[in-house]
Structures are given as C-alpha cells and as structure tokens.
Design a protein that fits this description.
Layout lengths: L9 H8 L3 H8 L7 H14 L5 H8 L4 E6 L3 H4 L3 H16 L3 E6 L3 H12 L5 E5 L7 H8 L3 E4 L13 E4 L1 H14 L5 E4 L6 H13 L8 E2 L5 H14 L5 E4 L2 H13 L9 E6 L4 H4 L5 E4 L2 H18 L17 E3 L2 E3 L5
Parallel strand pairs: 1-2, 1-3, 3-4, 4-5, 5-11, 6-7, 6-8, 8-9, 9-10
Antiparallel strand pairs: 10-12
C-alpha cells in the first residue's frame, strides 16, 4: 500500500497566496469584489498546490451542482441503436463540457423509470434538465414541472396547457417535409407515398402534415405508419407495395426508415430512382451517403440542436429564463428555437 498525500485545503491556498480564506473562497467560487492582483495570486497558489475544490462544499456556496440531467424518453436499446441520439448527445456533451458541467444521462424503460427520474430530479442532484424524444402520453413533462428544475425540451411540445413558459429546440419538420415532397413532384412523380414516424411524437406528426400540405388530394392508401426504425420502414414499404403497386416515390420520415424501404424495394425488383424515388429525413452520416443508392434526404443539424438545448439551459441558470436570442448572443424575450432544414440531393431522388 502507498500513502496518499493530504489534499490541499483552502487554508493552504490562502497561506501560499498571502490572503484570507474568504478571499480564496470568493475566487474559487467565481465571486466578485476581489482585486485582480489578488485573484492572480490565488490562481497561482491553486495551480502550484494542485488544489481541487470540494464540490459538495462549493455547492453550499454557489447553490450550483455543475451537473445537468439529460433525460431521453426511450429505452436504452433504442438510444444506443439510433445514431440520432448519439448526435444529439454529442452536441449536448460538447456544450456542457465547455462550461465545466457534468452530463447525467437518464433513460426510461417504463413507468417505474418515469417515477425514478422524477424523484431524482426533485432530489436536488442537478441544476437543470434537458428532455427529448417525448411521446404524447409521456408523464415526464408533469414530473419535471413538479420537480421544479429549469428545463429545455428537445422537440415541439405536444401536450395541452399553457406553453408560454416552455422552451424547446426543434427543426422545421413540416417545412422540410414540404420541400421533400415538392422535389418528388418536380421530378414528375404522381403516386408519392409517405412512411410516417411514430405518430405519438410531434416530429412525425409535423412531417405527415408537411406531406399533406403538398399532396392535398393524396390517396389515403399512400400513407403507411411506421416508427422511425429500419424494421418499421420495411413493414410499411411492403404494405405500400401490396396496396399501391404503382407507387413511384416515397418520402420516409427519417433515414433509418428510408433504409428499410430501400431494402424492400431492392428485394421486390424495383429500381431506385428509376421506378421509385426515395427521400429520407435527418441526413445522418455515414448512413445516408452509404445507402444503396446514396440517399436524398432532408438535413437537420441534430448536433446543433443538442448544443443549443444545453446553451439555452445554461443561460437560464445564469439569468433566470431561457432566451432563444441568447443562443445567438443577443438578449430577448423568452422563446424557443426552430432550426431550418435543407434538402440534400443524392442519387435516390
């Protein structure tokens, strides 16, 4: 066994810097009212001694834990299999790390997990929460509100009630869907189908609405419900071919769904895009580029969505309420952020 050197204390830093313990505490905890020359002496002493603040003691002073809960309303099998979540978590992690905050990941497998998440948030372990991939019947919004922690949501809220105090980050799902379907119509396609996402999520509903905005008189048989997964895309594509064998274009609710549709079209002998043009949504790389053929898709900046969620929350912790304009460095009234989408053209349409 080896002896461990004693951990440097505030008193040791104060002695090295030639200042009071209170002065060291103010500098370490980001307080004001300390002259620059003393701040520099304290920082030098901290570095020389290798002092690391005691987080529990620091929290008593700052009332901050420097930790943020990221709540994903999906089971771990879905979260770790879908690259969408990896991209969004990466954006969140980058922003939190840049501000020296810890990410605490909470997943929900079922109703018991919802209660556990609610208790954790109410227990004062984190400064705020980032919540995304909500479903319409999800109890999480009510649990978060009851816990009283500042929260930013990923995706447009779908629950009823007063939404003025709700801040969220989303993409222009409806506008992106319109662009995709208009592109297919511009190619001369007349039997344009839509494979939806999970319709208990607002992103899927918005993309379906965008499809209907363009295909006003579409045959209802051209709409097949899926769940944002490759397997769901396969099932829905088979249904479409059975119901409407003359389908000549497909707008899929996301790239994973499109990958499943492409697989079924190949198996059925349909050529893409000659016989059936296909467009996805997300532009998840390398999935979209490596599809066969490479996938035309609607790009949303998933990583940027995560980064903005974290930025809005951190600013709300410092200033009181999230401001959408603050995401661009400008003050404004409390609001949300909806990011634009872009149609990325490749070989499938």
């Amino acid at each position: 066994m080896t002896d461990t050197a004693p951990r440097p204390t505030l008193e040791a830093v104060a002695a090295r810097a030639g200042v009071s313990r209170a002065t060291v505490s103010r500098v370490v905890n980001g307080g004001d009212g300390v002259r620059d020359v003393l701040v520099e002496r304290v920082r030098k002493a901290v570095e020389e001694l290798g002092y690391v603040p005691n987080q529990a003691a620091r929290s008593l002073v700052t009332r901050r834990h420097e930790a943020v809960a990221v709540v994903v309303a999906e089971p771990e099998t879905r979260v770790f299999a879908d690259p969408f979540f990896a991209l969004q978590l990466r954006g969140i992690s980058k922003e939190l790390t840049a501000h020296d905050n810890q990410l605490v990941l909470l997943l929900t497998e079922g109703r018991d997990d919802h209660a556990r998440v609610g208790r954790y948030l109410a227990g004062g372990h984190v400064d705020g929460a980032l919540v995304f991939s909500l479903h319409l019947d999800d109890p999480l919004p009510e649990l978060v509100q009851r816990a009283g922690v500042p929260t930013v949501f990923g995706g447009r809220p779908g629950w009823s009630g007063d939404r003025r105090a709700v801040v969220y980050v989303d993409s222009d799902n409806r506008g992106g869907a319109r662009d995709a379907v208009r592109h297919l119509a511009g190619l001369g396609r007349t039997r344009i189908a839509h494979i939806t996402g999970a319709l208990d999520q607002t992103s899927a509903v918005d993309r379906l609405d965008g499809y209907r905005d363009v295909m006003v008189d579409a045959d209802p048989r051209l709409i097949a419900e899926a769940d944002f997964t490759p397997a769901g895309g396969e099932r829905a594509m088979r249904e479409l071919l059975d119901r409407c064998p003359d389908v000549d274009a497909v707008f899929a609710a996301n790239d994973l769904t499109a990958s499943g549709a492409l697989r079924v079209l190949r198996e059925s002998g349909r050529r893409v895009p000659d016989d059936v043009a296909v467009i996805g949504f997300d532009d998840m790389l390398p999935l979209a580029e490596q599809a066969d053929p490479p996938l035309t898709t609607v790009r949303q900046d998933i990583e940027e969505m995560g980064r903005l969620m974290a930025r809005l929350l951190l600013r709300s912790l410092d200033r009181g309420t999230p401001h959408a304009d603050d995401a661009q460095g400008v003050g404004g009234t409390p609001s949300s952020v909806v990011l634009p989408t872009t149609l990325v053209r490749r070989s499938s349409a």
